[in-house]
Amino acid sequence: MTRLRGKVVSGDSCLEFDFALATDAQDDDIVNMIAQPFELQINLERRRTSWTPDFLIERRAGPRELVEVKPLAKIRSADPDKNAEARARLDACRVAAEEAGYLFRLVTEQEIRIEPMLYNARLIHRHNGPFADNALLLKAVLAFGTLGPCPTVSDLGAVVGQPSAAIELAIRLDRLGHLRLDRTRRIGRSTVFELVGASAEVKR
């Protein structure tokens, strides 16, 4: 997790891995994420059993959250009995989470495997590793005043004389809060961005 100083968060499926990637890319407020944090007791048809959430997410603001990641096929069966059983278990998990003081969230591929969000999440993860060229990042920030209107990622690489580093520079500066990339399409050299905060003042 690039937001958590490289903390390794495990998963039991590709869908869980994709959820972690999307969370890392999209959730600016996250301060911790733990896979399979603990067991909670749940009540199912007058019997007690246990449930281990897939993830615990903690944020700077707001309540902590227990997340269950499930493929749609597991909760939308053609068999009415299996559907009822899945709904009953999810309801029991929600009750147990709330009684323990957590929010409960169910996520499926419909919330995770959205494009271009997942493509961008993978790209953001790739370019936010631990080894950054801080001198080049500073050079880019100092060059903001030379950018024209509606600058692109390619423009950013050009003003620092490092076209090949343009995408990584833009992604790191987005994470640092100097600019905001347009994420409505796949991030690339033609992606536009706007400067924010103090960086926008430099431009003015």
What does this structure look like?
By secondary structure, the protein is α+β, with helices and mostly antiparallel strands. Helix content is 41%, strand content 18%. It has nine helices and eight strands. The protein has a four-stranded mixed beta sheet with strand order 1-4-5-6, with helices on both faces. Strands 2-3 form a two-stranded antiparallel sheet. The chain has a two-stranded antiparallel ribbon with strand order 7-8. The longest helix has 20 residues, at 80-99. The protein is elongated and about 70 Å long. The two termini are 35 Å apart. The mean pLDDT is 94.
Shape assignment: elongated
Biggest sheet character: 4 strands, mixed
Fraction in beta strands: 15-25%
Helix share, percent = 40-55%
Order of helices and strands: HEEEEEHHEHHHHHEEH
Task: Name the poorly predicted regions.
Answer: none
Mean pLDDT: 94
Radius of gyration: 21 Å
Question: Structural class of the helices, strands and pairings?
Answer: alpha+beta
End-to-end separation in angstroms reads 35 Å
Strand order of the largest sheet: 1-4-5-6
Number of helices: 9
The number of distinct β-strands equals: 8
Question: Secondary-structure blueprint of this entry?
Answer:
Layout (H helix, E strand, L loop, with lengths): L13 H13 L3 E6 L4 E5 L2 E5 L3 E5 L5 E5 L2 H4 L4 H20 L3 E5 L1 H4 L4 H10 L7 H9 L10 H7 L6 H10 L3 E3 L11 E3 L1 H7 L1
Parallel strand pairs: 5-6
Antiparallel strand pairs: 1-4, 2-3, 4-5, 7-8
